[in-house]
Structures are given as structure tokens and as C-alpha cells.
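Supplementary Methods S3. Complex input for the zinc ion-bound model.
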Amino acid sequence: MTDKNEMDSSANESSSILESPEEKKKRFLMEFENPFKCDKCSERFKKKKYLREHKAEVHAY
Ligand SMILES: [Zn+2]
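Predicted complex, serialized as C-alpha cells:
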């Protein structure tokens, strides 16, 4: 089946950017601390309120 292939390709995608372990840790922490991600520009926010304000300001249209 193609299940394994799909998994492999998605894994490749996320690891296509070579990161040092430190970078990876930093990114993980950032994602952990800022769980609210803007779906338009991928910026991250600590609070849902911030994300909502960001969207209202930056993506008003
Ligand atoms: Zn945004």
C-alpha cells in the first residue's frame, strides 16, 4: 500500500530544512510557547487574543 510512502514524504517535507539540534529545540519551544498560529502568514502567538488582533490588523481584508 501507499500508506508508508505518504508517511515518508511528509517526514521528508518537515526535515527538508536542515536544522541544528539547537535550532530545532528553539523552534520546538517557540511552537510550544506560541501555539496560536496565523493561517495566513504563519506567525505565532502566545494568546488567541493576540492572534485575533494580528488578523484584524494585518489581514483586515
Ligand atoms: Zn498573519
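Residues 20-61 form one domain. The mean pLDDT is 83.
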